[in-house]
């Protein structure tokens, strides 16, 4: 492609001949800055073409790639050096935010996929759906579980951004969360209040950004939120009140909803509707104010201020009920810690059994059922593993002498392979410390544990270990203690034979789940960290101070408007 003519106006006026396939935005800004003769560098020039600011990007994009054509008109404006820098910094910040959002979504997809389909967790915990009582729940199909889990992850991350006053970023994450929830069966979503709360959070972000352009969509979202809350909580929160044993966790949420409805009505010139909503919100705000005497009583009992205020807000300021609430919450957290430790042990146990041909973990509940009727645990686990956790098929294998014998042979083979791999890893570790390979191998095979081998080698008795090696099998005993290497769980590489064709896979090539997944550990930790901080009341736990200020602001605006109208008519 030949040269093209660009018509420049503004800081410098004239026609430039450029190679669109060769020139970048930076090159064009440098040329305009040089011809303008004002002595500033390219960072002092902004270029606008077809209503868009031309940005440097990564510095490699050509003008043709940015849509600049022959005879294009470009406005060149001069900015201060600081302003030029700020434009570039803003562009970089936008790119950084976009990259973070992509990472966040990918991490949420990865986490929800791993924790919703029964796969063996790579972490030492499970992400599971719970109701407000802390009980595990199974909602719909695997696809539904995944969608809800992903929506909850993104919503929790957005709430963390809202607490940091990063409302624009929070809004982007909330939008992704809304999209995730939309993938779930709508009949299931209508049973829970997560989506209505997300809608209210989105409108709160609009309000805090003071973005009036969202006014029409804000009204629609708030209408859906009110309808969704009534559907999930019951009329006048009757169902919620029953579930919460007479408590009032939803008052702060409804306060925010009514405030936002009042704001939307005010900007839509619906003054009376706005006044009604704001007055109702103000009543709830006053209802949530913590009496000093009640707070002092709870503080005197040793409770923290934040926990005390939360308990009083949730219980309509009744001290006795607030104390009961605090005691229950403490007991609930203690039970959760016990359950988490138990689940960590179960996951470590599951990792020892390997994965099924389709990549699932051995089901511990079904395993315990088989053990309870007399089957040896490791044998029962292998039978479940190769039969995709089908209890009846596992029973058939366990009670069939030929199949049972095959399972036992496989278990022994797996143990030997695991021990050989562990021994080889220990040998490599000793070699990396500087010990001769032959002496390290002899010490490991003779003594069994890494530490014993190291002590032996440091004492200079490697010849003895080598001599003893003639009478030692290539496998290690199964009852290693201390820091021994016999009872380590299977890693992904070690479990490859456990889930391939030799273990009962229906395909010759083996399943694809053995491929190591690339994880964004940093982003996954950020997501799970926010989830693990929350509890059943987190969505309702709103301080309401900003809401109180906004209520007063808009009620004052309505009052001034009425006074003006009365004055003009007299």
TrEMBL record:
<dbReference type="InterPro" id="IPR015940">
    <property type="entry name" value="UBA"/>
</dbReference>
<feature type="domain" description="Ubiquitin-like">
    <location>
        <begin position="24"/>
        <end position="74"/>
    </location>
</feature>
<dbReference type="InterPro" id="IPR029071">
    <property type="entry name" value="Ubiquitin-like_domsf"/>
</dbReference>
<feature type="domain" description="UBA">
    <location>
        <begin position="418"/>
        <end position="460"/>
    </location>
</feature>
<dbReference type="InterPro" id="IPR039749">
    <property type="entry name" value="NUB1"/>
</dbReference>
<dbReference type="InterPro" id="IPR000626">
    <property type="entry name" value="Ubiquitin-like_dom"/>
</dbReference>
<feature type="domain" description="UBA">
    <location>
        <begin position="289"/>
        <end position="329"/>
    </location>
</feature>
<feature type="domain" description="UBA">
    <location>
        <begin position="361"/>
        <end position="401"/>
    </location>
</feature>
<feature type="compositionally biased region" description="Polar residues">
    <location>
        <begin position="489"/>
        <end position="509"/>
    </location>
</feature>
<dbReference type="InterPro" id="IPR009060">
    <property type="entry name" value="UBA-like_sf"/>
</dbReference>
<protein>
    <recommendedName>
        <fullName>NEDD8 ultimate buster</fullName>
    </recommendedName>
</protein>
<feature type="region of interest" description="Disordered">
    <location>
        <begin position="464"/>
        <end position="527"/>
    </location>
</feature>
